[in-house]
Amino acid sequence: MMDITGSYTFNAPPDRVWNLLMDPAVIASCIPGCEKLEPTGEDRYRASLTVALAAITGSYEGTVQITEKIPNERYRLTVEGQGKPGFVKGNAAIALRSDGATTVVDVNGKVETGGPIARLGQRLIGNVSKMMQDRFFACLQGKN
After folding, report:
1. What distance, in Å, lies between the first and last C-alpha atoms of the chain?
2. pLDDT band at residue 20, thresholds of 50, 70 and 90?
3. Cα 127–103–92 angle (5° rounding)?
4. 109 - beta bridge partners?
5. Is residue 53 predicted with pLDDT exceeding 70?
6. What are the b/e assignments for 63-89, b being 16+ CB within 10 Å?
7. Which residues touch 56 (CB under 8 Å, ≥6 apart)?
8. What phi, psi does 23 have (nearest 5°)?
9. What pairs with residue 59 in β-bridges?
10. In this structure, how many other beta carbons lie within 10 angstroms of the beta carbon of residue 91?
C-alpha cells in the first residue's frame, strides 16, 4: 500500500473546480491513456485505459466511483482496475479549499497493486502513480 498525495492550485473559485472534477468528459480527457469512461450508475463509471510506462505497460479495465460527496468541498474517489500487468486498487480523499481568488485541491490517497505489476517495487509504482496524478491535474488546470 502506497500513499499518494498532492496539492494543486486552480485560478478559479471552488464551484468551477468542482464542476470540472464532476464532468465525465473533462475527466476522461485528462486521465493519461483513457480510452473511455462510461457511466454505469450515479457517480459510477466503467473505465478503459492504456498505460505505456516500462513494465506497467498494458490495457486496464476498471471502475471508478465517487462517494461521500459534499458539493464544492470534498469527495472520495475509489478506483479498481485489472489488466495483464496485474491489478490496481486505490482510493483518495479529495478536498477543495478556497484561497483568495484561487482554489487548492488536496489529494490524499492510497494505491495497492497485485499480480506481476507488484513485483516492480513500491517506489516505481508510486512514482508512476504520482506522475499520472500530476498530469491529470495539470490538464484540468488548463481547462478552468
Report:
1. 32
2. very high
3. 40
4. 4, 92
5. no
6. ebbbeeeeebebbebbbbbbbebbbbb
7. 85, 117, 120, 124, 125, 128
8. -95, 110
9. 50
10. 16
| Spatial separation of the C-alpha atoms in residues 124 and 106, rounded to whole Å | 22
| CA separation for the pair 119, 100 (Å, rounded) | 44
Q: How many Å apart are CA 102 and CA 108, to the nearest integer?
A: 20
- CB atoms near residue 41 (< 10 Å): 9
- Please say whether the beta carbons of 42 and 141 come within 8 A: no
To the question of pTM greater than 0.70 for the whole model, the response is yes
Q: Over the chain, what HEC string results?
A: CEEEEEEEEECCCHHHHHHHHCCHHHHHHHCCCEEEEEEEECCEEEEEEEECCHHHCEEEEEEEEEEEEECCCEEEEEEEEEECCEEEEEEEEEEEEEECCEEEEEEEEEEEEECHHHHHCHHHHHHHHHHHHHHHHHHHHCCC
Residue whose C-alpha is closest to residue 110's, from 95, 122, 97, 96: 122
- What is the arithmetic mean of pLDDT over 26-47? 93
